[in-house]
């Protein structure tokens, strides 16, 4: 991630803040100062979302900036500012409830993936913190999102199961957490047969593994939170091989693991009043003579047998073992993140991840948090009428649903529900983890989805009083 300025946020009471350039969000009917109106009209500014006009002062310097707010102002539009403004120090002019979100959006918009090629657009744009803004907390949140995005953006050759383990170890070490990793054939001895089956075809240096981080586990008086992530470093589709177009961005299929690790780091940094377990199933769904096959029947950690109808429905298999392991901790709350189905995108598109849970209170808290921090989620039903679509005549369950059900994201969630912990609430987020179009502040590539919403929910429930 490009560092840009080491201090992008300046305290609102610092001496230099007084000279900051105002940024004014203006809608189609918004008032524009008389001195700027003619200039704005000449520049075609109509207050539409995405429009930005730099208004010059008499001496040629920047007097202020007009940003189109549209009919309804979305403070997340401030993500575009660092990419579109000239270098300098700026001050947001927005209502207090919007200014904090906009300032965080500014930090999120600074992300750029430059591991292999330096960024050409790295201007030094800084922002005066709105009054009452917790810049340290915002920086932690932006850094967590950047971690998830950078992991997703990194090509599979450099972000395999071992690299995910390395990142997990760094996070655990930084926060005094325990970590254990089971790899290769040891997965069979330790009863993770589904994870082993999916990952066994990969090269020896990319062997499958289950990564488990534990934090505060000795504090039995605290609720236990389990975070579970799908970590498919690359998904070829297995023997049911994907077409070229479907395989192109499969480096992102470990996005769930990236989200679980980034969210877990946030929980530990914030010192939330919980015990925490993070479980990442890290594999590569490769093709070799040892690859698992359509028609195979796999065992699982829970003891349920799984008929394989499609080797490209592998994410739910590794999550089955990881969720079963989570249940052994008797968690009070389990959240899993996974780039699980294309059907989720057909249903809701790339920007709106489905949320599945049968716990109404958890759904309400997650959706309220999502709305508050502008990190959208949409609750989808765990429709019981489709459970028959994952029945198998030969095994306890099948990994590809019968065609009559059609709702592929729903049936995938119903599959996971069979393995999810029952001691507390569980929620599944079928994320895309990707921006498919390039916009200022939203570069094409890795994206954090549901991460800020989940953190805000956890913080609201479990922050120390």
Sequence-ordered SSE layout with sheet pairings:
Elements: E1 9-10, E2 21-26, H1 34-42, E3 52-56, E4 62-68, H2 81-84, E5 88-93, H3 96-108, E6 125-128, H4 135-153, H5 161-174, E7 178-183, H6 186-189, H7 193-199, E8 209-215, E9 224-235, H8 244-247, H9 255-270, E10 275-285, E11 297-298, E12 306-307, H10 315-327, E13 333-338, H11 342-348, E14 354-357, H12 360-373, E15 378-379, E16 397-398, H13 408-417, E17 425-430, E18 434-435, E19 445-446, H14 451-462
Parallel strand pairs: 1-6, 2-4, 2-5, 5-6, 9-10, 9-13, 12-16, 13-17, 14-15
Antiparallel strand pairs: 3-4, 7-8, 8-10, 11-12, 14-17, 18-19
Helix pairs in contact: 3-4, 4-9, 5-9, 7-10, 9-14, 12-14
Task: Provide keyphrases for this structure.
465 residues; eight-stranded mixed β-sheet; six-stranded mixed β-sheet; disordered N terminus
Structure at a glance:
The protein has 14 helices and 19 strands. The chain has 465 residues and is α/β, with parallel strands linked by helices.
The major sheet is characterized as:
8 strands, mixed
| Number of helical segments with 4 or more residues | 14
* Alpha-carbon Rg, integer: 23 Å
* Beta strands, count: 19
Mean pLDDT: 95
The structural class is alpha/beta
Strand order of the largest sheet: 7-8-10-9-13-17-14-15
Query: Portion of residues in helices?
Result: 25-40%
Spans of at least 5 consecutive residues with low confidence: 1-5
């Amino acid at each position: 991630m490009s560092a840009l300025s080491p201090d992008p946020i300046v305290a609102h009471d610092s001496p230099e803040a007084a000279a900051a350039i105002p940024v004014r969000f203006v809608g189609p009917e918004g008032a524009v100062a008389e001195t700027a109106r003619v200039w704005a009209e000449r520049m075609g500014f109509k207050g539409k979302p995405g429009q930005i006009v730099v208004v010059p002062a008499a001496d040629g310097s920047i007097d202020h900036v007009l940003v189109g707010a549209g009919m309804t102002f979305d403070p997340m539009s401030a993500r575009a500012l660092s990419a579109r403004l000239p270098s300098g120090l700026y001050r947001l002019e927005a209502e207090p409830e919007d200014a904090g979100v906009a300032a965080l959006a500014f930090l999120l918009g600074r992300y750029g993936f430059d591991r292999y090629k330096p960024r050409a657009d790295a201007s030094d744009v800084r922002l005066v913190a709105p009054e009452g803004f917790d810049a340290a907390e915002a920086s932690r949140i932006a850094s967590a999102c950047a971690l998830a995005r950078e992991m997703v953006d990194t090509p599979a050759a450099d972000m395999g199961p071992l690299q995910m383990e390395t990142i997990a170890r760094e996070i655990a070490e930084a926060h005094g957490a325990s970590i254990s990793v089971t790899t290769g054939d040891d997965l069979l001895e330790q009863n993770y047969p589904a994870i082993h089956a999916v990952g066994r075809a990969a090269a020896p240096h990319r062997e499958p593994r289950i990564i488990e981080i534990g934090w505060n586990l000795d504090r039995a008086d605290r609720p236990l939170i389990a975070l579970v992530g799908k970590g498919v470093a690359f998904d070829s589709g297995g023997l049911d091989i994907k077409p070229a177009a479907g395989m192109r961005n499969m480096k992102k299929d470990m996005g769930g693991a990236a989200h679980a690790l980034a969210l877990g780091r946030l929980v530990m940094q914030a010192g939330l009043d919980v015990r925490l377990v993070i479980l990442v199933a890290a594999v590569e769904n490769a093709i070799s003579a040892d690859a698992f096959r359509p028609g195979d029947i796999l065992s699982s950690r829970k003891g349920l047998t799984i008929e394989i109808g499609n080797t490209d429905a592998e994410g739910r298999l590794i999550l089955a073992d990881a969720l079963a392991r989570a249940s052994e901790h008797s968690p009070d709350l389990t959240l899993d993140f996974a780039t699980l189905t294309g059907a989720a995108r057909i249903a809701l598109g790339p920007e709106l991840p489905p949320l599945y849970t049968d716990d109404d209170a958890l759904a309400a808290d997650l959706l309220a948090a999502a709305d508050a921090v502008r990190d959208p989620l949409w609750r989808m039903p765990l429709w019981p009428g489709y459970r028959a679509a994952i029945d198998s005549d030969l095994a306890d369950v099948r990994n590809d649903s019968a065609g009559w059900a059609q709702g592929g994201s729903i049936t995938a969630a119903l599959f996971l529900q069979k393995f999810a912990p029952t001691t507390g609430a569980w929620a599944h987020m079928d994320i895309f983890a990707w921006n498919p179009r390039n916009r200022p502040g939203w570069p094409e590539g890795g994206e954090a989805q549901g991460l800020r919403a989940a953190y805000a929910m956890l913080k609201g429930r479990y922050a120390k009083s």
